[in-house]
Amino acid sequence: LSTRAMLASKLLFALIILGTTWNLMAGYGGLVSIGQQAYIGAGGYGVIKLADVVGLPIPVAVVAAGVVCAALAIPTSFLLFRLVGGYFAIGTWVVAEVFKLVTQELPGFGGGSGLSLTAFQGVDRVTRIATVYYLALALAVLVVLATYVLMRSRVGLGLTAIRDDSVAAASLGVAVRRSQRLVYVAASGGAGLAGALIAVNGLRVSPDSMFSVQYTAFMIFIVVIGGLGTIEGPILGAVIFFALQQLLD
User: Fold this and answer.
1) CA 40/CA 194 separation, integer angstroms
2) Which of 55, 94, 128, 189 supports an S-S bond with 70, CB 3.0-4.6 Å?
3) Where are the beta strands (DSSP E) in the chain?
4) Cβ atoms within 10 Å, residue 184
5) 130: exposed, middle or buried (C-beta count within 10 Å: 0-12, 13-18, 19+)?
6) Which of left, alpha, beta for 173 (phi over 0: left; psi -120 to 50: alpha)?
């Protein structure tokens, strides 16, 4: 592939990850979140700290940032799951704003101006673009495959039942809350991976860009247009969204 094609495709892979993980949470778990930008931002800032401060290689730092975001989602879920329906959705947005404010105030995170990634210094542009491209491609494939395997498992059958009727699923012995927490944590980890890819692609992060609610708008559009509650829906939606963005840009 040409360098120009790689540059464009990296965004597509990040969109596939975001759409697939949001669909897992909303399309199967029945959890409509409008605050996943909390973990996109955390993943973006996390990968820079892990690469520049800790010294991890970029691919390892990206994966580690996703794991950190999944870990952050566990305690956060115990707060959010006290809310239901629209209150849950608004609660996730509040959490995202809290993440943003905390990031701005923490020392060493650049305040309102953000941080720059220095781990790629000395690496030529073509190599950097190719590295991020193949990393994004690999992660997008792994996320889709992991979602497919999950939905073919016992947990996936329970999630399908929850999607159709959570009350009936609970009456049949499905652990509704535990299953929902699982997909929330998984989706947050996926958002962290996408945020880390966005950060290493742009080489810079700031609170306003990384914690922007536009990412949630992108995810909702991708899933709705592609097909909510299907494996292939987010992929189709991401391709349509990406094509429209390229044509209208």
Assistant:
1) 6
2) 189
3) 115-116, 204-205
4) 26
5) middle
6) left
Neighbours of 143 (CB within 10 A): 25
Element (H, E) at 221: helix 214-226
Task: Check: CB of residue 62 under 8 Å from CB of residue 135.
Answer: yes
> Over the stretch 64-121, which tens digit does the pLDDT of each residue have?
999 999 999 999 999 999 998 889 999 999 999 999 999 999 888 988 888 999 988 8
Amino acid at 3: T
**Token duo for residue 122:** 């000395």
pTM over 0.85: yes
Q: Distance between CA atoms of 69 and 187, rounded to whole angstroms?
A: 9
Q: Are strands 204-205 and 115-116 parallel, antiparallel or unpaired?
A: antiparallel
> What CA–CA distance (Å, rounded) separates 8 from 2?
10
d(CA 246, CA 233) in angstroms, rounded, equals 20
